[in-house]
Design a protein that fits this description.
With 389 residues, this protein is α+β, with helices and mostly antiparallel strands. It folds into 3 domains: 52 residues, no CATH class; 123 residues, 3-Layer(aba) Sandwich (NADH Oxidase); 182 residues, NADH Oxidase. It is built from 14 helices and 11 strands. The protein has a 5-stranded mixed beta sheet. A 4-stranded antiparallel beta sheet has the order 5-8-10-9, sandwiched between helices. Strands 6-7 form a two-stranded parallel ribbon. Strand 1 and strand 2 form a beta hairpin. Helix 1 packs parallel to helix 3, helix 6 crosses helix 11 and helix 7 crosses helix 11. The longest helix has 22 residues. It is elongated, with a radius of gyration of 22 Å. It binds flavin mononucleotide.
Length: 389
Amino acid sequence: MSELRDLLRRAERDLQRGPRGAEHSDPARLWRELVELRERAAHVDDDTRLLGAARQLAERASDVATGPPVPTETLAGTIAAAVLAPSMHNSQPWRFAVGTGRVEVRLDLQRRLPVADPDDVAARIACGAAVHNLRLAFPVRLGRAAEVALLPDPADPTLLAVVRPGAARPAAPREQALHAAIARRHSNRYPFRDDVPVEPTLHATLTDAARTRGCWLDLVVEPATRQLLGELVTDADRVLRADPAYEQELSGWIRRDAGATDGIPGGAAGPRPEPGDPLPGRDYGGAPRRPDRGFEPAPLVAVLGGPGEHPADQLAVGEALQAVLLAATDGGLVASLYSQVLEVPEARSRLRRMAGRLGSPYLVLRIGYPSRPTFATPRRPVAEVVDLR
Ligand SMILES: Cc1cc2nc3c(=O)[nH]c(=O)nc-3n(C[C@H](O)[C@H](O)[C@H](O)COP(=O)(O)O)c2cc1C
């Protein structure tokens, strides 16, 4: 019932703010509907028809409160930013439905990783990162705030988010800078420079960026803790690599042909992992490292966590991840991700104890200044991932 109350409250707030757009709707009629639904809600305890009517009302009230309608094709232009989000093995587990005044972000069940990500946790993190890109693309490209509803329909768990254009407003300079970083951000799996530590002022920038809806980023600066974390990821990696099904799934995402639009191409694979690496990378079929090109001995390592294990928490972690990565890119930094711990429950429990935090750790990051550039990993064309409604 709290969802019903929330919807009615939201509808009231939007009707009070409007009307700023959606000339075709009639706010007076929506007010009457609101009063009527309130009446009915006061007398019934649980009624799915009532809930459905409240959802529809909230949606129409939100149309009234927001600015003039954005043409579907213009709205679809924001998807180019969404698809640049990171995803495990570059699996791009998303679809976008773009219709009148809304972008739906959906989990694409055809692109699951059944072995590495049986519960779609990593997929939801990737989609959360795509939602974060939309939050920036709306003000920058459309001149409109992004109004985001996460998991808006409990009956449809693949509908991860609905993003609508809100009030007209110019993008803040910080939003413009972070939006510009979307296309420059790439995973960099190579050793980073070991002659310059990460600028201390950036530490706070990164931890602040992660702070959204209960997420956190712990920077690991103690050498002993860093070593412990490295051992933990190494153990998790060893467990995974002993599983032939994991190896088979992983190798299925390695791409050798130049026209590939997903997966990991040779140019992005990074060096082949070697025993003794302080943090083991995934083996994406990269070339062996030159003996004088070792990993930096004291990298800036970080653990990204969220408030819990609910799908909404995983979307929040995705948003926080992308916020951290864009802040890093804007500050001249690059990052490598290590999610092996997410896939090995025992390793994750150890990491949870180690983090000594409320909530759940999800990903390990290595952050630093690049010793060599990496290139954009391909994406499927926007037309392939968008359904125009
Ligand atoms: C949830 C999640 C887990 C990831 N885990 C790893 C990982 O364990 N190792 C790795 O090298 N990259 C990992 N990545 C990075 C992806 O491989 C990368 O984002 C993808 O290949 C697209 O490349 P890009 O980041 O350069 O755009 C992960 C990304 C996400 C979102």
